């Protein structure tokens, strides 16, 4: 059967675009072929720096003939309807139509339209130029004289030639007859730009591959990667060194060359004084080269590998020398950055963070650091970190962002902070936390396990989540510009991998309090900036606050703005700190009157809940603020629930079981949630679990049906033991009560012990599930021997109340209504 070969030959295609472009070419052409009724046996696409190629095998020589029946109007329909039918069907008269009999609806006309299939060559002549003209490059350009036209062809780089042949293996193929922007499709391609630039005539794919190989072009990107990796390993081994493999760099370099040649170069050993990550980043980012290391010491070697795109007549000596010169210059710059950065202590960089905007609605990086310090202090007791070390690490965590080195290599943020912290004598815990607080950044990334690192990593991620949710910058669909899904997964990994008991609701509220205190703009909560060019009179503020809650603040450091006073007050009020006294309230009210010029102070004051009850705005403002805060926390916990499903799904957990646990009230302790999900999964794998689930569903379905008649909540009252006539219903009633008492004991132990001790036998949740299993026999007996909808109304209601007690008892463990299957 005929094959199609298409090659689009251009100037250099950026390496990062090649794989997707090849996939898009295959998708668009094969999709169009299928739409035109042209099936095929297989398709493969390829990309090199100068060409996109597509091979489609096993195409038919022409489209199949098509027979279509078009239903028309009824016999005897108005003339206008009949004429419209004839025109649309392409018929000259009704004699060319057939009459379809229909006893119910009446006879009607049908046109039988037969269309002969078109030659595949003609179809391709329509498809291929359309695909080329609408190709979805992420970035493209116009060129030459035609570029003045808005409808001119856009391509990633100037397109020079099109090769397009179609035909069977045994015959001379045809050139697909089309042109794009004056470029006629033909049978010509070109080899390597320098080693074989002459035109090459191609018939079909079978001679295309060997012709390119002969012309020093390796078409398949995977084969280019294999050549580079194999030769790089061999050269490294010959030097007694190990190649530091880099999959992303290998992918990129394979997209930069058509004929890969691996060469060995070296740099001055003095540069090995620079941190190895800096050397690697410098050589990788600027020269796209691979670094080597000593297999014994594990340290970097002063040699590197480069990949040339040519077999040089001098064996590559000039290429090696040129690359070595550039690498030396780059490493000299890196050494200068390193030495310059070491002259400034990290804490001395803090003022510069005040000039860098983190987000226009969330303040500067300096304000963010203030929040991180507060959050890290809160988290320290929970994760077992030294509070002073956690606060110090949080304070310094972002300082390397304004260093020379990170300015040049942003991917080294955190890592350089660790090096600088070590050099200036910070503790190992603080230095490690500065690097590790960004982690984990993906499912395969390191999860910090040092307490100080955990505290700062959680502080950083929770601040981002609360802040961006508060300003309504939340993920939607495939868009997540602030990587909040990744941040939530990072929090989940930190909690679960380190077996932390961290109630999310309380911690999210604390993070929000610090956000309100530090940041000058959280418009979703009407808490806008209170800053002003005019300073409040410090003496007057101090006089107003004398004897009040804030007297010590004014004595220690006179306030310069109402923002400082109001935000500190808000923090104390919402965190439940400090003692409420009348003089405090009076001082704050008087402060409000003095600083009226400060924008939105009244709203802040009212939101604090300390305005007088007679104030007409007090109730609405207070309730609106608290409702908005509660809505924010609720949305964040739901977001964590969705991310937890993703996290656990990758580990084999069932979505429905997570839903069954999350449906219970107050579920915000991720470690407890996962422990309960695991225990529930094990229980439902047993016969007792499966049968109890069936019994629960039977009870729930009966209740659902009867509640439609009697109303929701009609059976919420406890069953009356005096109305339990049958032995089976009394046995179930007694078992429910006993099970409830025992389950509460196990659930309490779970709350107290999980994450805080090691269990040799079943965990408390597993014991609670065993307790639940004890319901199976009495439930089965009840349904086998007791008629729920008894003829006597009081018996019916009492038995339905008993089933409701069963449902409630089961829901204490998990909401079984959420379980699938």
Automatic annotation (TrEMBL):
Q: Which GO terms describe its cellular component?
A: cytosol
* Keywords in alphabetical order: Aminoacyl-tRNA synthetase, ATP-binding, Cytoplasm, Ligase, Nucleotide-binding, Protein biosynthesis
Q: What is its EC number?
A: 6.1.1.14
Keyword ATP-binding attached? yes
Protein name, per record: Glycine--tRNA ligase beta subunit
**Family (UniProt):** Belongs to the class-II aminoacyl-tRNA synthetase family.
Describe the reaction catalysed, as an equation. Answer: tRNA(Gly) + glycine + ATP = glycyl-tRNA(Gly) + AMP + diphosphate
One biological process term from GO is:
glycyl-tRNA aminoacylation
Q: Record's HAMAP family?
A: Gly_tRNA_synth_beta
Q: Annotated Gene Ontology MF terms?
A: ATP binding; glycine-tRNA ligase activity
- Localization of this protein: Cytoplasm
Task: Please indicate if the UniProt record lists Nucleotide-binding as a keyword.
Answer: yes
Q: What is the superkingdom listed in this entry's lineage? A: Bacteria
InterPro entries named among the record's database cross-references: Gly-tRNA-synth_bsu, Gly-tRNA-synth_heterodimer
Q: Which PROSITE patterns did the record assign?
A: AA_TRNA_LIGASE_II_GLYAB
């Amino acid at each position: 059967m005929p094959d199609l070969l298409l090659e689009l030959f251009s100037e250099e295609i950026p390496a990062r675009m090649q794989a997707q472009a090849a996939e898009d070419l295959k998708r668009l052409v094969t999709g169009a072929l299928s739409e035109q009724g042209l099936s095929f046996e297989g398709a493969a696409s390829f990309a090199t720096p100068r060409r996109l190629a597509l091979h489609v095998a096993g195409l038919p020589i022409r489209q199949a003939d098509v027979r279509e029946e078009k239903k028309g109007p009824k016999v005897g329909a108005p003339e206008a309807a009949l004429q419209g039918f004839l025109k649309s069907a392409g018929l000259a008269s009704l004699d060319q139509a057939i009459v379809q009999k229909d006893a119910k609806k009446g006879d009607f006309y049908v046109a039988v339209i037969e269309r002969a299939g078109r030659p595949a060559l003609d179809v391709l002549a329509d498809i291929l130029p359309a695909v080329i003209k609408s190709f979805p490059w992420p970035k493209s350009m116009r060129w030459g004289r035609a570029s003045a036209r808005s409808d001119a062809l856009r391509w990633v780089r100037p397109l020079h030639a099109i090769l397009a042949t179609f035909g069977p293996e045994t015959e001379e193929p045809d050139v697909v007859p089309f042109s794009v922007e004056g470029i006629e499709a033909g049978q010509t391609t070109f080899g390597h730009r320098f080693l074989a630039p002459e035109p090459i005539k191609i018939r079909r794919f079978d001679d295309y591959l060997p012709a390119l190989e002969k012309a020093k072009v390796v078409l398949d990107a995977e084969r280019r990667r294999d050549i580079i990796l194999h030769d790089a390993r061999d050269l490294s081994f010959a030097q007694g060194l190990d190649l530091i493999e880099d999959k992303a760099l290998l992918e990129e370099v394979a997209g930069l060359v058509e004929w890969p040649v691996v060469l060995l170069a070296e740099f001055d050993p003095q540069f090995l004084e620079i941190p190895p990550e800096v050397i690697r980043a410098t050589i990788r980012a600027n020269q796209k080269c691979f670094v080597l290391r000593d297999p014994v010491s594990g340290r970097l070697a002063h040699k590197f590998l480069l990949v040339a795109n040519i077999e040089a007549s001098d064996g590559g000596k000039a290429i090696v020398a040129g690359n070595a010169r550039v690498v030396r210059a780059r490493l000299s710059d890196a050494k200068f950055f390193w030495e310059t950065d070491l002259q400034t202590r990290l804490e001395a960089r803090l003022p510069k963070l005040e000039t860098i905007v983190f987000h226009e609605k969330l303040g500067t990086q300096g304000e963010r650091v203030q929040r991180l310090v507060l959050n890290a202090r809160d988290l320290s007791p929970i994760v077992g970190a030294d509070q002073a070390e956690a606060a110090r690490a949080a304070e310094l965590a972002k300082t390397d962002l304004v260093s020379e080195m990170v300015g040049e290599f942003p991917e080294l943020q955190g890592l350089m902070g660790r090096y600088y912290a070590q050099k200036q004598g910070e503790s190992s815990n603080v230095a490690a936390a500065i690097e590790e607080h960004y982690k984990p950044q993906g499912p395969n990334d390191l999860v910090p396990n040092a307490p100080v690192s955990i505290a700062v990593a959680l502080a950083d991620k929770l601040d981002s989540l609360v802040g961006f949710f508060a300003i309504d910058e939340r993920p939607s669909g495939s868009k997540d510009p602030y990587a909040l899904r990744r941040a939530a997964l990072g929090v989940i990994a930190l909690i679960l991998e380190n077996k932390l008991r961290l109630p999310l609701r309380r911690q999210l509220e604390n993070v929000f309090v610090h956000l309100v205190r530090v940041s000058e703009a959280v418009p979703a909560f009407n808490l806008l900036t209170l800053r002003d060019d005019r300073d409040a009179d410090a003496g007057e503020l101090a006089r107003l606050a004398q004897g009040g809650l804030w007297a010590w603040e004014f004595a220690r450091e006179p306030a310069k703005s109402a923002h400082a006073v109001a935000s500190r007050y808000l923090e104390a009020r919402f965190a439940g700190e400090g003692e409420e006294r009348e003089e405090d309230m009076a001082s704050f009210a008087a402060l409000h009157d003095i600083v009226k010029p400060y924008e939105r102070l009244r709203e802040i004051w009212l939101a604090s809940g300390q305005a007088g009850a007679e104030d007409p705005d007090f109730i609405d403002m207070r309730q609106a603020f608290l409702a908005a805060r509660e809505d924010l926390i609720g949305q964040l916990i739901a977001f964590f629930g969705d991310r937890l499903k993703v996290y656990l799904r990758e580990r084999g957990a069932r979505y429905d079981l997570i839903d069954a646990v999350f449906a219970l009230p107050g579920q915000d302790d991720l470690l407890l949630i996962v422990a309960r999900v695991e225990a529930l999964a094990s229980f439902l794998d047993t016969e007792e679990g499966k049968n109890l689930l069936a019994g629960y569903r039977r009870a729930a379905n009966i209740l659902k049906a009867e509640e439609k008649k009697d109303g929701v909540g009609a059976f919420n009252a406890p069953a009356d033991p005096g109305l339990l006539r049958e032995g089976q219903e009394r046995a179930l009633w007694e078992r429910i009560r006993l099970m409830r008492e025992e389950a509460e004991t196990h659930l309490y132990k779970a709350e107290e012990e999980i994450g805080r001790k090691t269990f040799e036998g079943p965990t408390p949740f597993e014991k609670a599930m065993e307790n639940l299993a004890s319901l199976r026999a009495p439930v089965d007996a009840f349904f086998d021997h007791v008629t729920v909808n008894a003829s006597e109304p009081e018996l019916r209601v009492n038995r339905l109340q008993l089933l409701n007690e069963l449902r409630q008892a089961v829901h204490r463990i998990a909401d079984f209504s959420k379980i699938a299957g």
